[in-house]
Amino acid sequence: MDRVIVRNAMNLWINVYNIISIFLQICLRKCNIRRWWVKPHLRNDLRDEYGAYNCIFRYFKLNDEEEFQKFVSMTSEQFDEILELVRPQLTKRSKRRALTPEMRLAAVLNFLAHGNSIQKSAWMFLIGRSTMYRLVIEVCTAICNVLEEKYVSFPSQDDLSVIANMYWRIWHMPNCFGAIDGKHIRVKAPPNSGSYFFNYKKHFSIVLMGLTDAFCRFIWVNIGDFGSSNDAGIFQRSDLRQALDNEEIDIPAPTYLPRTDVLCPYFIIGDGAFPLKNYLMKPYTRANNLTHEEKIFNYRLSRARLTIERAFGILTKKWRILESPVDWKLKNIETVIMALICLHNFLITEEMSKDEAERKYVFHPYNIENEAEIGIYLGDEPEDATSIRNTLKDFFCSHLGSLLWQNERAL
């Protein structure tokens, strides 16, 4: 009998304990009381001793330049230059010891370069997960603030002439001041978005449309259109198309094609998804039976269009955050993409004065997408634009504008 009474009493106390525990958990949730002000593994002394900033980043910076470049996708000199620009915006004041601007920048650049999850980066640098997410947005915003105006602004008339000259010297495309195309950036489907962001590649995305110069630097970008939109529709709605149609861009006056007395206007180039305009040249449609001369034109235009393809290739290979779906607010995704474009242009510009062997932000091989999978623009082609394209075709096939190898590669 005594044992039964003791057993019942113990069961009663266990039940009371469980009820009290559940009650306290509910109260804590309602009152939003934290278990810790700072989690034990996020203390400053542990971060200083075991965190990636002191143990890895600073060691690489002082002792191993090659590993440092892999860690943040830039040299230590380039890192220090960016740090000095963003330092005023990343310097914080707090009752507790704040993270240094250098640590903030290092953590975010490593995250962007390697495409880690927010949680993995937070563990590596021994900072909170929510803090890491906030750092990404703060640092990317600061990068945009200090670099965008200088490195991603649309060129002046004189600069457009220089770009066109380099397109001729490097890519053998006269009077061209840019190559345009779109790229899908993978995202998680936004809430209540339906199929707006679902693209022809069968995943969710937003579209980054860019215009690049002869050195694969972006001179204009449009970020954030629905993944279900095609390039022609995005271009039609863009401020670039409106400015070109309304002659609001100070494009240089038509000039003679090299070594000829044939006048030709300046233009940009795109693939078959774009409309043919006086200011936009596209390939002859492959659905038609192309002549050999038209195939040569298509080859020359596709060769010059490698600048935009390579720009997208460099961007995604150097900043691997773009290779996996991003589950953030769309506004924050656009901020991150813009920051990566600013860094891309900054790094290419910084290395242009170096010998090719010393350049670290190198071009990676990148295959041109199969144009058969790209929607072909089937709208009316203006007679003036068709005449300009035919003039360029004749120039490419003449002894004044031809290349030694073009007949073999124009298939």
Chain-wise SSE layout:
Elements: H1 2-31, H2 44-50, H3 52-63, H4 65-72, H5 76-90, H6 101-114, H7 118-125, H8 129-151, H9 157-171, E1 176-186, E2 205-212, E3 218-226, H10 231-237, H11 239-245, E4 255-256, E5 263-264, E6 267-269, E7 280-281, H12 292-304, H13 306-318, H14 330-351, H15 383-397, H16 406-409
Parallel strand pairs: 1-6, 6-7
Antiparallel strand pairs: 1-2, 2-3, 4-5
Helix pairs in contact: 2-3, 3-4, 5-6, 5-8, 6-8, 7-8, 8-14, 12-15
Name the descriptors.
9% strand; alpha/beta; two-stranded antiparallel ribbon; 5-stranded mixed beta sheet; DDE Tnp4 domain-containing protein; 2 domains; 52% helix; 411 residues; nuclease
In short:
With 411 residues, the protein is of the alpha/beta class. 52% of the residues lie in helices and 9% in strands.
Q: What does this protein look like?
A:
The chain has 2 domains: 44-151, no CATH class; 157-397, no CATH class. The chain is elongated. With 411 residues, it is of the alpha/beta class. The strands form 2 sheets. Strands 3-2-1-6-7 form a 5-stranded mixed β-sheet, with helices on both faces. Strands 4-5 form a two-stranded antiparallel ribbon. It is 52% helix and 9% strand. Helix 5 packs across helix 8 (129-151) and helix 12 (292-304) packs across helix 15 (383-397). The termini are far apart. It is found in: Nucleus.
